[in-house]
Every structure is written in C-alpha cells, then in structure tokens.
Amino acid sequence: MTGPRDDRLGALSALAEPNRRALYEHVAAAGDWVSRDQAADAVGLERGTAAHHLDRLAADGLLETDYQRLSGRSGPGAGRPAKVYRRSDRELGVSLPPRDYELAGRLLAQAVDRSRTEDVEITRALDEVARAQGRRLAEEARAGVSGAGGARRTAILEVLQLQGFEPRTQPDGTILLANCPFHQLARHHTELICGMNLRLLDAAVEELGEGSLNARLDPEEGHCCVKLRPTPPGPAPAPDEGGDPACWLHLLDDTPE
After folding, report:
1. Could you count the other beta carbons within 10 Å of the beta carbon of residue 218?
2. Do 81 and 173 fall within a single domain?
3. Is the pTM of this model over 0.90?
C-alpha cells in the first residue's frame, strides 16, 4: 500500500533529472505564470521537451497550471489560451527514517491554544488533541474495514505504516513499532512526547474497534516507546501503565538525524 510519504518521494525524485530541475527552478524564481515557450527559451530546451518535463512536474504536484492568453487581447483574433505554469503551494519534506515533526508541532500548538482559551491544564489538553488525532487516523482507515478482526488488524497496520511507525508483528501478536516519527522530540522531551504518542495510538486502536490490542508504554532501545500488545483476559489496563517515561531516556536511540 502506498501513501503520502511515497508520493513525496516520487515528487522529489522528479527533480533528479537535470532539465526538469532547471525548469522547476526557473518557474519558481519567476514568481508568476510562465509559458512553455518562455521556460524552454530560459533553459535552452526544445519546446516539446520542455512541455513534457513541465507536465511531469505538474503531475507530481510541484507546479500548478492554468490557461491564459499571453497576448493580453481577448475576443476574435486573440489566439488560443496557452498553458502556463507556476510553483505549487504544496509543501514537501522527506526524511529517512520517516519523521513527522509537522504533526507533532500541530498537536502541541492545538494543545497550547486549548489550554490558553479554555483554561485547561496543558498536559490534559495535549492528551485530548492527541486522542482526537488518533480517532481521525482510524476514521481514514475505516472505509476498507469490515467487522472481521483480521480486517481491523490490517487497517491498524496500514495506518501505522502510513504514519511512519514501521509496524512489525511479533510471534506473540504484539505489534512492535520499529520507528518513532517524533524521535528527536521524544529524546529531549520524553515524558511529554511519549505520552502524546500513547494517547494517539490508544485512541486509533479504540476507534477501529480492535479490542484484542492494547497500547502500552513499553520502551525498547531503538524503537518507539509504545507497543500494541494483545489484551490480557480481564479488565483492560489503563493505557498509561508501563512506568514513568522520564526514566527511559537512556533507552531512546541516540543516532543523529
């Protein structure tokens, strides 16, 4: 299954071709609409070759397109509108292994806003916005989920993969998360970020109705601090059981970004 990160990698790989990159840089520097003829002349390409590369950049979301009469005239004799290009507003960022500091920043900003406007304690506000995000992730995966537990498990794995957690199913049914999308933040703000991560994942599992799994703080060197473990018989344990995250800092991978 492909997802947003695959799309970003494909889009950025388009810039590896020298002519394509030159065309993109010209259009971006122009700051306005650029025609095929203008772009071709600027980088010294045949018009047909430039058109091919410009359309590839547009298909990858790096440029946006329009049709305009470049003569400035309208009506009969004004000529056909020409296809023009300008830089897209789409923002692209790729990191390997996958990181999602944009999501973490958005959740933290939402929590600060809620704490400030609703007079809610900041960690409680972060818990609430993280759980809301977890439910949204589950809702995005719900379309292909039937009532079968196997389908729900598959949906969870797909959600985790798309979010960059790199899930690995262990022989005992535990889902180990081989990557933390918030790695550097978790290293330096362990209790805050690991708690946010736990609430997000717990809400996603709960929303998808996968009652056979339970999100737990269970740090292991080089992995995400949360594991999804098979739910033991009896009452489900509280999602924040598993020890004080502030005591685990030495377990987090110190590999630089």
Report:
1. 19
2. no
3. no
- Find out whether 141 and 127 touch, Cβ atoms under 8 Å: no
Residue range 164-200, pLDDT digits in tens: 999 999 999 999 999 999 999 999 999 999 999 999 9
Select from 64, 87, 110 the last residue of a domain: 87
Pairing of strands 34-35, 82-87: antiparallel
What is the mean pLDDT of the segment spanning 9-25?
85
242: containing domain: 101-251
Q: Rounded to whole angstroms, how far apart are CA atoms 204 and 131?
A: 8
Same domain for 144 and 117: yes
Pairing of strands 82-87, 63-68: antiparallel
What tens digit of pLDDT does each residue of 46-100 get?
999 999 999 999 998 899 999 998 766 565 555 678 999 999 987 766 666 788 9
Q: Estimate the share of the chain in helix, then strand, then coil, as percent rounded to the nearest 5.
A: 50, 10, 40
CA nearest to 165, candidates 112, 129, 204, 110: 204
Q: Please count the other Cβ atoms lying within 10 Å of the Cβ belonging to residue 65.
A: 15
**CA 225 vs CA 21, 115, 182, 236, 246: distances in Å:** 40, 26, 11, 19, 12
Shared domain for 221 and 137, answered yes or no, is yes
pLDDT at position 148 over 60: no
Distance in angstroms (rounded) separating the CA atoms of residues 23 and 186: 40
Alpha helix stretches (DSSP H) within 143-189: 149-162, 183-188
Looking at the chain, the whole-number percentage of residues with pLDDT higher than 90 is: 56
